[in-house]
Amino acid sequence: MRDVYRKAYLTICATSAACSADGFLLPRVFEWVELQWTWPLEEPALRTGVFYLARYKSSTPRDLINQKIEESVWNSRTWTFQERLLSRRMLHFTSAQIYFECASKFESEDEVLLEKARLNRKSVFCNQIGLGATHIDLYKRWYTLVSHYSARSLTYPSDKLPVLSGIALEMFQLLNDCYLAGLWRNDLIRGLLWELDERIPTPQTYRGPSWSWCSVKSGIAWPYVHDISEHIIKIMHTSTTPVGLGPFGAVSDGEILLSGKTVAVSVTKHQHEGRQIDSHSRLPYRVLSRLEWHLVHRNMDIGVASPSTDYNLAENRAPYFALWVLSGYPGARILHRGLILERTEDSQQHYRRIGTFFLHSNNSWMFSGVVDGTITLI
């Protein structure tokens, strides 16, 4: 499909369709206003008539675009992600009107409306993927693309990597880097630090190696990591086994052999309550409650943990293992980030990734005197 979208002069998008069987020419839904008119014409039959004016429910043009395109079922599906990203020009058939979208502009039937509603196409869906970008920019753009993609609906779990294969191939041609189950070899240290938007049970079927975002069902995102960061681990060897002919599709397994510092840790749950000003209520604020996981070493709370799933982490269970990955410098602070691991049942040197953590600079003492060891992530 990559070549179909890339080489098409124009892609017609069934944006208002709820499923593939609906087609794209669906009835338009308007709120009509009737205006009676009269005109001093000689023919009596032509002296009266009715104007039908369509009134949009949305208060602003951007709200209408968000409602009809961005929040549509079409835009929530994984299979339409590359359709929108790779197509050079698109016609969106919605229940309100037709929209034209390309890399430089966004137009619709109502020219007056769109004079004030032109969207910035330097967004995540800019189909000029590598225009004027450095390798660092491209890696960051990949993480942004994957974050948006991972939040979309997917019918068959085995499609998670194949659906993204066309975009991965586009990025490969720009980066000339080794593709590893949704991550890139030359930026793998940062790539390993993905986090979940929400914690949900572990998938029952295999989707990918635990160190890849494709192994989970939830939407994911990457924390901010400064470009000038100190890498603590050393990647020694990587491998994946593709399912099928191409390297950009599904995989049956994957390994990362690395050298780094690990220490035994446990995790605990903390329920935090805070106050937030609420402008929509008569109350001055509302109470917010959120659940946090904390990393514990030698009975001391030393950092914040972000589990991959609630199913994987058990409170106060030990040992889990903290792998120090890198140290970043956001502003005046130093943050140490790493992975939370557990050993597999059949090997002392094979580990699964089950989460991430970060420590503030004064808690890096837990790794003092720890000798680098060799481990394998699967």
Report on this model:
The protein has 378 residues and is of the alpha+beta class. Among the domains are: 2-115, no CATH class; 262-377, no CATH class. 15% of the residues lie in helices and 35% in strands. The protein contains seven helices and 20 strands. The protein has helices spanning 2-7, 61-70, 81-86, 111-115, 135-150, 165-175, 188-191, and strands at 11-13, 31-38, 48-55, 89-93, 98-102, 106-108, 179-180, 183-184, 195-196, 220-221, 230-231, 234-242, 251-260, 262-277, 285-297, 300-307, 320-328, 335-343, 350-360, 373-377. The chain has a six-stranded antiparallel β-barrel with strand order 14-15-16-19-18-17. It has a four-stranded mixed beta sheet with strand order 1-4-5-6. It has a two-stranded antiparallel sheet with strand order 2-3. A hairpin with a 7-residue loop joins strand 14 (262-277) and strand 15. The model is unreliable at 115-127 and 276-288 (pLDDT under 50).
What's the overall average pLDDT, rounded?
81
Main beta-sheet annotation: 6 strands, antiparallel, barrel
Q: Which structural class best describes the helix and strand composition? A: alpha+beta
CA-to-CA gap between the ends?
31 Å
Pfam family, one: HET
Organism: Lophium mytilinum
Protein name: Heterokaryon incompatibility domain-containing protein
Annotation keywords:
alpha+beta, six-stranded antiparallel barrel, about 15% helix, about 375 residues
Describe what is shown at a glance.
With about 375 residues, the protein is α+β, with helices and mostly antiparallel strands.
SSE diagram, text form:
Layout: H1 2-7, E1 11-13, E2 31-38, E3 48-55, H2 61-70, H3 81-86, E4 89-93, E5 98-102, E6 106-108, H4 111-115, H5 135-150, H6 165-175, E7 179-180, E8 183-184, H7 188-191, E9 195-196, E10 220-221, E11 230-231, E12 234-242, E13 251-260, E14 262-277, E15 285-297, E16 300-307, E17 320-328, E18 335-343, E19 350-360, E20 373-377
Parallel strand pairs: 1-4, 19-20
Antiparallel strand pairs: 2-3, 4-5, 5-6, 7-8, 9-10, 11-17, 12-13, 13-20, 14-15, 14-17, 15-16, 16-19, 17-18, 18-19
